[in-house]
Every structure is written in C-alpha cells, then in structure tokens.
Amino acid sequence: MKITVKEIEAWLEAFREEITAHKEELSDLDQAIGDGDHGINMARGVKEMHNLLETKSFQVPGEILKAVSMVFIGKIGGAAGPLYGSAFMKMAAEAGTKEALSAEEFLGVLRAGKSAIVQRGKAETGEKTMVDVWLPLLKKFEGKQEIDWDDWENSAEELKNNTKEMHAKKGRAAYLGARSVGHIDPGATSSYYLFKALADTLRE
Ligand code: ADP
Ligand code: MG
Ligand code: MG
C-alpha cells in the first residue's frame, strides 16, 4: 500500500462526509457534557477544507496536511480546532516531502499527530478526550506493515465507546466532574470518524 496525495484527499473527503452526516450527533454529545457546538465546529472546518481541496492542487501528502492544518486551526475553533490543527501540522512535518508513504510510514505520520495533541492538550488516557482514541489505537497498530482495516475501524469505535464510562478530567466536560460519566466524549467521536474514514478509504 502506498499513500499519496490521492489517498489523502480521498480520506479527508470521506472525513468531511462523516462529519457532515453526524453533525447533530456530535453536537448532541457535546450538549450533554459541554456547550453543544462540537458538530457545528467540526462541520465548519471540514466545509472550508473541502473548498480548499476543490480549488488547490497538491504535490505531496505533507503539503495537503499542512494546508488542512491551517484551515482546522482557523475554522474549527473551540478546544478541538487547535488540537486537530496541531495534529495535522505535525503530521505534515513528519510526512515531509515524500511523494508516497508506506503503511508503516503513514502510521508514523499519525503518531506524530497524536503526539501533537498530547503535547498541546496535556491529556492522558482515561481523561475522556480524543486522546482516548488516538493513543491506544496507534499503540495497537504500531510496527504493523499491513493494517487490517476492519480491525482498525472496530478498535476505534470501541475506544470511543469506552469514553462513556470515563470521568472527564480535561476540557469543558471536566467541570461536570462525575456527572460526565455515562456520556460518550464528542471529540473522541469525531476522531473515531476520522479513523473510520481512513479505513473506508484504504481497505481494498
Ligand atoms: P469546546 O469545548 O471549546 O466547545 P469542542 O466542543 O469543539 O470545543 O471540542 C470538545 C472536545 O475537545 C472534547 O470532547 C475533547 O475530546 C476535546 N478536548 C478538550 N480538551 C482537550 C484536551 N486538553 N486534550 C485533548 N482533547 C481535548
Ligand atoms: Mg463544545
Ligand atoms: Mg465551544
């Protein structure tokens, strides 16, 4: 498997479709433990990303990841915007100027994104954030040369569902304390859609 600009574009477009289709779900989840805007925030970001992909052409994966990072930082807003934005910024740096990435190299790119989120948000696993999807998912697949995309998608889904029983320690939901238990984290859910979109794009 080789990942080029074409695969990255298809992945990001699939992500846009997931977010657009689940905008209400994301805002409803955020209504329960936050301020109810996560769907709106993410939908605004992916719409602008779509406009960018329509109007500009890119030579290498790093270039597109960089441009998308700027859109996410500028357009998503809230806590999630800077987190997704930094993730894509670091992913771009890791991808560099390579034209095609192997599965292993691409996993390295995603791990760089994960590190950016952890560095910026300072969340650890178990604190009911998007980190609870990114970190264990990438750990599970670390070092793999081939990825079973069904396993990938199911793992991501299970990880976001696991945030339901967690007590929020970071972000707006932390203000609710124990009352955050019983609700799935909205950012973990949008990250699940990011990884589901990747599986849908790359599975044969
Ligand atoms: P806001 O809370 O500013 O309205 P959003 O609703 O767009 O922002 O995003 C909320 C999501 O951001 C949460 O569900 C959580 O997954 C994620 N999040 C918040 N703070 C952190 C953090 N410190 N580290 C990682 N993720 C975080
Ligand atoms: Mg919110
Ligand atoms: Mg908000």
Automatic annotation (TrEMBL):
Residues 6-200 form the DhaL domain. It is an enzyme of class 2 (transferase). One of its GO terms (cellular component) is cytosol. InterPro entries: DhaK_L_YcgS (IPR012737), DhaL_dom (IPR004007), DhaL_dom_sf (IPR036117), Dihydroxyacetone_Kinase (IPR050861). The keyword Transferase applies. Its EC number is 2.7.1.121. Pathway: Polyol metabolism; glycerol degradation. It catalyses: dihydroxyacetone + phosphoenolpyruvate = dihydroxyacetone phosphate + pyruvate. It comes from the Bacteria. One of its GO terms (biological process) is glycerol catabolic process. Keywords: Glycerol metabolism, Kinase, Transferase. GO terms for molecular function: glycerone kinase activity; phosphoenolpyruvate-glycerone phosphotransferase activity. The keyword Transferase applies. Homodimer. The dihydroxyacetone kinase complex is composed of a homodimer of DhaM, a homodimer of DhaK and the subunit DhaL. ADP-binding subunit of the dihydroxyacetone kinase, which is responsible for the phosphoenolpyruvate (PEP)-dependent phosphorylation of dihydroxyacetone. DhaL-ADP is converted to DhaL-ATP via a phosphoryl group transfer from DhaM and transmits it to dihydroxyacetone binds to DhaK. This is phosphoenolpyruvate--glycerone phosphotransferase.
